[in-house]
Amino acid sequence: xxxxxxxxxxxxxxxxxxxxxxxxxxxxxxxxxxxxxxxxxxxxxxxxxxxxxxxxxxxxxxxxxxxxxxxxxxxxxxxxxxxxxxxxxxxxxxxxxxxxxxxxxxxxxxxxxxxxxxxxxxxxxxxxxxxxxxxxxxxxxxxxxxxxxxxxxxxxxxxxxxxxxxxxxxxxxxxxxxxxxxxxx
Length: 185
Known about the structure:
By secondary structure, this protein is an alpha+beta fold. The protein has a domain at 60-156: Ribosomal Protein S5, domain 2. It is built from four helices and seven strands; from the N terminus they run ββββββααβαα. It has helices at residues 90-94, 97-108, 127-145, 150-156, and strands spanning 30-31, 37-38, 60-66, 69-77, 82-85, 88-89, 116-123. The protein has a five-stranded mixed β-sheet. Strands 1-2 form a two-stranded antiparallel sheet.
């Protein structure tokens, strides 16, 4: 029994590809004004190292969490303090004065004089957990801005991450710890 060998077909190699309009996809960092640097992100060749450039952002960002609520907080310096939560004002979003007070607590304390435009994206959990997540995010931003405020915020308990979450329901139980009713017969 003789077998016939199949002819080998050649696969296109890297050198046979046609370059994209404008030359190869490699570019050098472009240094703009005020020391800001932008870099075109390109997939590196095998063996090449990629170096990330530092970019100065016009805002300060922090994350606050409570139960399953996550708040992404951004603060930009402004002439007066304005707080928006998911595109709405704090008063419209929360409605209850007690929750609005929780959100404004880091900003309305004595010794704080900064003015910021604060935009917040929050999701998950209930409204009380969301308010506390926002409070933690705002407190972290204030510490990033001025380290001297850390002691006062820590004393008030605003920098403490409350990690308590609802325990999951287990098999054979009614809830996480509640058992089925025992019956004698």
